[in-house]
Amino acid sequence: MLPYGFSSPFVFVPAGVSLCLFACLIVVELSVSHPLVDFRLVTSRRSICGAFVAILSNLLMLVAMSGMGFAMKTVSKIPSTTLPSVYGGLVISVGLAAILAASFFDRVGAGPLFIVGSLCIALSSYRLTSLEPGVSLDQLRFQLVLFSCGVGLNFVVGLVTCALGGPLNQLPRTMTVVQFLRVFLYTIVTPVSQWYLNVHTAALTAINGWAATKVNTITSASVTSAIQHDIASGESEQRARQIVMYLLSGELQSRAALIATHHLFVISFICSLCLLMISCLTILLGKGPTLAHRSRT
């Protein structure tokens, strides 16, 4: 998908076939008496809200990691050797989210915990929409930890809410439905997010390059001055032009990548607002059953 895009038959034909097969799978599973993936287990309003929050939060984590990795590589030029230290915070944040969910789920219910998790995602996404080129590694690490805390909290609470919204004796099959949908959507969002970043960056680089050389007379004069400076330093005219255009293209690509990353996190911020609305809907549904109550039954 990355080298071809949606317009290529190598992409839209397999994608169309996959969607048709997925639709056929849903129809068949809903019509048989003993389905392999029983979608009917996730039909109550509470189960639907829990599954929606868990899956969407997990997909936003993928989007955030794609955007941050792209920004670190293309914009901030942070070496890839630092990635383990950045992503290492994910383990800690998910652990904290699990402890928070286990401690407060029976006390406050799913809705307030969803709001806390969604606010963490929204705040981090909003901060990342104004990412600067010289952002430090510590700032990126903090934003990723905050984002993953919200995702981990929503994911854990969402799975528990979905499970408690259905029959407890069908818990493994209910989780199978949620994980099946999560993995299916995961395989779609993964290439789409990377394709979006690459294509959007390429388009913005071309637009900014044309505007810089054809419209912006100040930039054009600066390029000419830089070429003349390199010629005066002993470089040939052809070599001087190559050096200046290489530096200019690198700067234009870095700016375009930064804008594409901003747009990706704007999408993440909008999705976090959708999570907040679902969280409020979950509160209107009531506190619902608790873990202690279900364990006794």
Automatic annotation (TrEMBL):
<feature type="transmembrane region" description="Helical">
    <location>
        <begin position="48"/>
        <end position="72"/>
    </location>
</feature>
<protein>
    <submittedName>
        <fullName>Uncharacterized protein</fullName>
    </submittedName>
</protein>
<feature type="transmembrane region" description="Helical">
    <location>
        <begin position="264"/>
        <end position="286"/>
    </location>
</feature>
<feature type="transmembrane region" description="Helical">
    <location>
        <begin position="112"/>
        <end position="128"/>
    </location>
</feature>
<keyword id="KW-1133">Transmembrane helix</keyword>
<feature type="transmembrane region" description="Helical">
    <location>
        <begin position="6"/>
        <end position="28"/>
    </location>
</feature>
<feature type="transmembrane region" description="Helical">
    <location>
        <begin position="84"/>
        <end position="105"/>
    </location>
</feature>
<dbReference type="InterPro" id="IPR036259">
    <property type="entry name" value="MFS_trans_sf"/>
</dbReference>
<keyword id="KW-0812">Transmembrane</keyword>
<feature type="transmembrane region" description="Helical">
    <location>
        <begin position="140"/>
        <end position="165"/>
    </location>
</feature>
<keyword id="KW-0472">Membrane</keyword>
